[in-house]
Specification:
This protein is mainly alpha-helical. It has helices spanning 8-12, 19-27, 33-46, 52-58, 68-79, 86-101, 109-119, 146-163. The protein folds into two domains: 8-79, no CATH class; 86-163, no CATH class. It is built from eight helices and no strands.
């Protein structure tokens, strides 16, 4: 995901993330090293006893951001956090929420959805608003204008965002 790095405050405002989720977002280029540090700072603000590894992570200066992967690994080990299969789903939602929120500033938001669809391994849960995917609900795009078809995709995208839940 080279086209977007999500700010920690955007992420924190939308979902509760585990440290394994943070690691997944960082390793996949969606969350920057600065974002990981900001996440640690936010965690410390919520819980002063978050642990020495979290304090170390939150204390990294911009010049020390190369240390983020190793310190993040310390956090995961100290917290006993296991890998979560939900991480991909959460970041898919977060990226699509960011793109949707900024759609008026982007030249081709539906094209970005197509890129996200590919980058995340063609997840079934978003194919209903990928423009090149055939509709599965009996809708016939050829019977509608381009504007109607685009509006329908945006409606399906919005519904996905509104109904997203974590398990």
């Amino acid at each position: 995901m080279d086209f977007v790095k999500l700010a920690a405050d955007f992420v924190l405002d939308r979902l509760e993330l585990s440290w394994s989720d943070v690691k997944w977002g960082y390793e996949h280029g969606i969350l920057s090293a600065a974002g990981v540090v900001e996440f640690a700072v936010a965690r410390l603000a919520e819980d002063e006893d978050a642990g020495s590894a979290v304090v170390e992570l939150a204390s990294l200066s911009p010049q020390e951001h190369a240390e983020v992967p190793s310190v993040l690994e310390k956090v995961l080990q100290s917290e006993g956090v296991a890998w979560s299969s939900e991480s991909r789903r959460k970041w898919l939602y977060l990226v699509l929420a960011w793109v949707h929120e900024h759609r008026d500033e982007l030249p081709d938001p539906l094209g970005i959805v197509e890129q996200v669809y590919a980058d995340f391994g063609y997840p079934v849960e978003i194919q209903s608003f990928v423009s090149y995917m055939p509709p599965e609900d009996g809708y016939e795009p050829q019977a509608h204008s381009h504007e109607e078809n685009v509006a329908r995709l945006f409606t399906k995208w919005k519904k996905y965002l509104e109904t997203f839940t974590t398990t």
